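Figure 3 (text version): structure tokens given as input.
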């Protein structure tokens, strides 16, 4: 018997306000055509004033718990992947814990920017496999609209707010790649590239939240190659290959990166979940959002092999292979 972390529920939440590309053209030298042709993005959601990352995370968590048919008291641990916490501390995960009415278990945040959900999922899997937790709520939640420089057309048109969540539960498997649950993962970081994508403020430096800065073309240059490599490594660790993949659920940063990576892996686009047109880049929230939206559409059948891959600031990148 091999213990596996199986997805038993998914959920998501998107703030009410939808901002179409054309809205940016009113204040910036940009156009709907430029944004969509360069990124695939048509619209994104922005959180309302007074609506925080924890609010988004709690809503997504409630949705995922309902989908799993369990209550918060059944959860042992809450992990939130975010780079836009409500406050410097405590962790958003503790606010989620309290918001859900949990008084037991433990809760912490993971910060690996756009790769955060993949890092959180791999760590939650480790806690389940080691017996530290039986059920873990893994959430990606972001309010990137709060760290945008609204005068920088090269970044502010690309990002959005939202949250997605999955419930993982320990189940027994046979120890083969036919088992349901997380089969393998691969995580990487290379801090030499931290200047390609960063926020120009922080607690210990400026004492402010700062604004996102990105050398988009350089990030792009690293993305396809690193995403294909990490996906291949994770699949290899599971004893599988790209031909076995039923669904790729990639980080939703840019449609051209998503297409380029699929092509490099040899996976056709009809097996790739794409939500970037409606959500923009929601950083750590993008994969759980896409998972939840696709699950609600009934796209995943039990036993399907799902590959999640992401890259973000750090640079940090990774992949998780799981059977639905
Ligand atoms: N509207 C109109 N023109 C624009 C805009 C805009 N919104 N933004 C930039 N431009 C201009 C630039 O100024 C540049 O003009 P110039 O040639 O006169 O200098 C021109 O468009 C081309 O700019 P590039 O940056 O070369 O455009 P590119 O085709 O590379 O697309 C983009 C830019 C969309 C940012 C792309 O490089 C990209 O997606 N990069 C990856 C970003 C990413 O994946 N991030 C993921 C991680 S996010 C995270 O971790 C938080």
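Below: residues designed for each position.
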């Amino acid at each position: 018997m091999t213990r596996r972390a199986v997805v038993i529920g998914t959920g998501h939440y998107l703030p009410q306000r939808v901002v179409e590309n054309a809205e940016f053209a009113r204040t910036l030298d940009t156009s709907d055509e430029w944004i969509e042709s360069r990124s695939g993005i048509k619209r994104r959601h922005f959180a309302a004033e007074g609506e925080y990352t924890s609010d988004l995370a709690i809503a997504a968590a409630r949705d995922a718990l309902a989908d799993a048919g369990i209550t918060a008291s059944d959860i042992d641990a809450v992990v939130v992947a975010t780079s836009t916490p409500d406050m410097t501390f405590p962790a958003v995960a503790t606010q989620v814990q309290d918001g859900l009415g949990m008084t037991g278990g433990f809760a912490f945040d993971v910060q690996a920017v756009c790769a955060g959900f993949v890092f959180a999922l791999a760590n939650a899997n480790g806690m389940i496999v080691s017996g530290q937790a039986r059920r873990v709520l893994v959430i990606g939640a972001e309010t990137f609209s709060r760290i945008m420089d609204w005068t920088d057309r090269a970044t502010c048109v690309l990002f959005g707010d939202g949250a997605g969540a999955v419930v993982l539960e320990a189940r027994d498997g046979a120890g083969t790649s036919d088992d349901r649950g997380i089969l393998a993962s691969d995580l990487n970081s290379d801090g030499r590239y931290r200047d390609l994508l960063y926020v120009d403020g922080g607690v210990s430096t400026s004492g402010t939240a700062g604004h996102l800065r990105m050398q988009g073309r350089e990030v792009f240059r690293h993305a396809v190659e690193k995403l294909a490599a990490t996906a291949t490594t994770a699949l290899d660790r599971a004893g599988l290959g790209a031909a076995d993949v039923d669904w790729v659920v990639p980080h939703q940063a840019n449609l051209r990166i998503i297409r380029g990576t699929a092509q490099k892996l040899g996976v056709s686009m009809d097996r790739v979940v794409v939500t970037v047109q409606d959500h923009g880049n929601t950083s750590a929230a993008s994969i759980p959002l896409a998972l939840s939206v696709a699950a609600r559409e009934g796209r995943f059948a039990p036993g399907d092999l799902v590959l999640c891959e992401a890259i973000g600031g750090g640079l940090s990148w990774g992949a998780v292979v799981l059977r639905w």
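Residues 30, 34-35, 38-39, 113-114, 153-154, 157, 197, 216-217, 219-220, 223, 253-254, 257, 281, 283, 312-313 surround acetyl coenzyme *A (CB under 6 Å).
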